[in-house]
Amino acid sequence: MGDDAAGSDRHDAGTIWPARDWDSESLLGVSPVDWALVEQQLRDGVDAEEIEQWVIERLESEIPAKYRSRQTATRRAFTAELRRRRGRLLLVNRARRWRSLRRLEWVWGDAIDALEALHHACHEFGDEHAEAHQEQRRVENDFRCEALMVLFARALLTTSEIIALLRSGHGLGAAGRWRTLHEVCVFSVVIAEGSQEVAER
């Protein structure tokens, strides 16, 4: 009977909280709760709800601190290892990247060069146009021309970003900036074909 009663007590304890080999021991290296004391209190008739509340408070107070301590140790070990191997890691990564960029240049180099040449020509055209019509814009207060010049400058900047992303092998990033360039072109067409009121807004 005594063995049965003890087994019943252990079974009741297991229905309220985890067993003594709970995962906190593997996480922290040591359990924050003295489970033998808990079982003894149950056998002594201490209210199960009071014991459960004490266990919860104990876990909530101990686990975060011990977890943070172990997390800090892991982070420091990782940082030290990263610093130790940084030179070799960067050397390998840069060699791999250099080979990748060589392939990219061999396949797409002519197309990217053509885009860059077009960008340079547009930049020069914009500078010449701005200088030639600067006084006219000031006198006539031409909102449409001003808006188009701002959009033109934004298009040049966006195209420069596209070229940089293409040459560095970031095709998806270049595609995203190309969508922005298309939006700028649409705005430019709307303003060019609209009235001064539209440009002013």
Explain this structure:
Helices cover 87% and strands 0% of the residues. It contains eight helices and no strands. The chain is elongated, with a radius of gyration of 35 Å.
Strand runs, count: 0
Report the C-alpha radius of gyration, rounded: 35 Å
H/E element order: HHHHHHHH
* Mean pLDDT reading: 76
Main sheet specs = none
In terms of per-residue confidence, which ranges show pLDDT below 50 for 5 or more consecutive residues? 1-30
Helix content: over 70%
Shape: elongated
Oligomeric form = single chain
Count of separate DSSP helical elements: 8
In percent terms, what proportion of residues is strand?
under 5%
Q: Which secondary-structure class do the elements indicate?
A: mainly alpha
Q: Quote the distance from N terminus to C terminus.
A: 91 Å
List key phrases describing it.
elongated, mainly alpha, disordered N terminus, 201 residues
Write the layout of secondary structure elements.
Blueprint: H1 2-16, H2 23-28, H3 35-43, H4 48-132, H5 134-140, H6 143-167, H7 171-193, H8 196-200
Brief summary of the model shown:
With 201 residues, the protein is mainly α. It has helices spanning 2-16, 23-28, 35-43, 48-132, 134-140, 143-167, 171-193, 196-200.
